[in-house]
Amino acid sequence: MDIPGGRYAGRSADERRSRRREQLRATALEVIAEEGIGGLKVRALCARAGLNDRYFYEAYGHTDRLLYELADEQLAEVVSAVMAAIVTGSDDTRTRLRAVIEAGVAAIADHPARRRLAIDMQTTDELRHRRTELVGVVANVMLDQARELLGEEAAAGLHAELAARTVAHGGLEILTEWLRGELDIDRAQLIDFLVAMILTASEITTTVQREMSLG
After folding, report:
1. Does 180 share its domain with 100?
2. Is 33 exposed, middle or buried (0-12, 13-18, 19+ CB in 10 A)?
3. Which whole number is the average pLDDT over 168-189?
4. What is the pLDDT of residues 46-71, one digit of tens each?
5. Which among 112, 104, 108 has a CA at the least distance from the CA of 138?
6. Is the pLDDT of residue 98 over 70?
7. Which one, 32, 75, 79, 127, has least CB within 10 Å?
């Protein structure tokens, strides 16, 4: 008998709730990896996790809440992988940049659920919002790294910020197309292109500033 506040099978009520929540989360990641976010249905998810439907509603109430919690956590893991590559990276700009991009691509492409989440990031308003936030994070990382590695030679100001966001948007879209299998290139070619694109960000800034001054 499951006595509120008591223990059952050696676990407290809070421990059992936590365990069921982790079962739901782990199962949801499996479903996302196999079927995408459209596969998150309460009854099917609970059946796969071996849990009664009521436990899902006790923990989350709606699949969207579970989805967005998982999305936030998985995106945080990607950012963490990128930041770790920066901390341990070389002082050479191109070498560090390549290591950072390799880490970011691997963090997404080699994790089945993250891979599918990246593909599905434009399917709801909330996920699009998170994608936009990720673009902002990537753009800020690019600007910070430019300042650290190039010092006063790094582009700065509004145009530099806009160029960084443009490159971040474009890079994320290219990565997504590659994940969907729409680009006939291998991972090394993808990374080569992303490295080259980011390295030209300062040139984009200079070109835009020149063109706007002519206008």
Report:
1. yes
2. middle
3. 96
4. 999 999 999 999 999 899 999 999 99
5. 104
6. yes
7. 79
Where residue 50 sits, what CATH number does that domain have? 1.10.10
Give the span between the Cα atoms of 91 and 66, in whole angstroms. Answer: 40
Residues in the chain: 215
155 within a domain of the structure (yes/no) = yes
Check: pTM over 0.70? Answer yes or no. yes
Cβ-Cβ contacts under 8 Å for 24 (sequence gap 6 or more)? 45, 46, 49, 51, 55, 56, 59, 60, 66
Contact 113, 29 (CB under 8 A): yes
pLDDT of residue 15: 86
Residue 102 belongs to a domain with what CATH number? Answer: 1.10.357
Cα–Cα distance, 199 to 123 (Å, whole number): 31
Smallest CA-to-CA distance from 124 within 61, 42, 64 is with: 64
Expressed as residue numbers, the domain containing 34 is: 9-61
* Same domain membership, residue 154 and residue 198: yes
Q: What is the pLDDT of residues 201-214, one digit of tens each?
A: 767 777 766 777 66
Return the residue matching tokens 């609970």. Answer: 46
The Cα–Cα gap between 10 and 25 comes to: 23
